[in-house]
Amino acid sequence: MKLHGLTVLDLSLFLPGPAATQLMADHGARVIKVENPHAPEPTRSAESFPWQQGSETVMFRNTQRGKESIALDLKSDAGKRALLKLAKKVDIVVEAFRPGVAKRLGIDFKTLSADNPGLIYCSISAFGQTGPWRDKPAHDTATVAAAGILDVTRSPEGDSGPAIIGVPIADMLSAYLALSGILMALHRRHTTGHGDYLDISMFESVLAASPNILGPVFGGDKAPERLKERTHGGNAMLNVYETADKHHIALGGGEHKFVTALFEGLGRTDFIAPVTGPAGEGHWPAIAFLRETFRERTRAEWESWFEGRDICWSPVVSLKEAWQSEHVQERGMRFKDAEGNDHIGSAVRFSDEPAQISTQLPGIGANTAQIIAELDLTEADREAILSLL
Fold this sequence. Notes:
Blueprint: E1 7-10, H1 16-26, E2 30-35, E3 52-53, E4 56-57, H2 58-61, E5 68-71, H3 77-87, E6 92-95, H4 101-105, H5 109-114, E7 120-125, H6 140-146, H7 149-152, H8 169-192, E8 196-201, H9 202-207, H10 215-220, E9 238-242, E10 248-252, H11 256-265, H12 272-276, H13 284-294, H14 299-306, E11 313-315, H15 319-323, H16 326-330, E12 334-336, E13 342-344, H17 368-373, H18 379-386
Parallel strand pairs: 1-2, 1-6, 2-5, 6-7, 7-8
Antiparallel strand pairs: 3-4, 9-10, 10-11, 12-13
Helix pairs in contact: 1-8, 3-18
């Protein structure tokens, strides 16, 4: 597998860091998860993450598989010494403490790289390691709000307040940027022999994902007027329409061929020219027509109508429907382990050396004895660490 031979030390919790390191584990890296024996990985908790399969939460199962777990109290002398010894042997460290915490613990990049110059050290935080917002506490929704994305995430029909986005985009975008940056640093290390430090901000990961919506801001120095913008509800062909049975159809492509196929099929060729033009007021009559028209048939009837037509569209399905679809099953994005528990497949697909996913989950500190046996620790430190299990 592509990452075989690499060792990753995962000091992160919840989603951004664990998602990035699980991708590395799926593709062959050895990932050692460091857990505080007094406060282990929060996603293990069925109280906080109540949906379970087998003996583990769905969240834990799909962010921590294939990893090893070592239980270390990094505020203890023995735990810190073990971490410093372990950091000498790894290629990558991923941490998601609040800015400044790693330095206070004495496990920051400067400290760890002094004995391991090839170390690649990735910090993931809400707003980054510098700047006036660095110490603001935030998880996904707050960083998305701060990036201006919740303000433009509203219903395209009627007036509504900001809507919570259905997936944790700041968490996952920062995970993918972390992985991308780590792989860049690994590539450069082949040439220089030196590692590097990555400062990944969840907030900035959302900002960086916004080039297609920044026209009014960069070109006009103003916030977008939502219903005049292409992707916020001002384009008839990038919109959501209610059906007769209270389901919805999403149109998702405004190229001329799609516009022509839709409005010829509906007998309103007069809308082809304006809908092919810029979003905004020129689209509003067509949007009104489509809202009225889509409410005349059920979702199933519209699915039959769209069949065979060259139009970019999809029914708005439930999360359950999506993960039960034939396409998801055939592509292996949902699969079951030997015990019948569900897992998310790997979306990174190679022709050679594809992911070989281990569905094994570590107990809290399950690999502690094995890992500390690999380290040059005193017997007293070993006993102090093992006594916490």
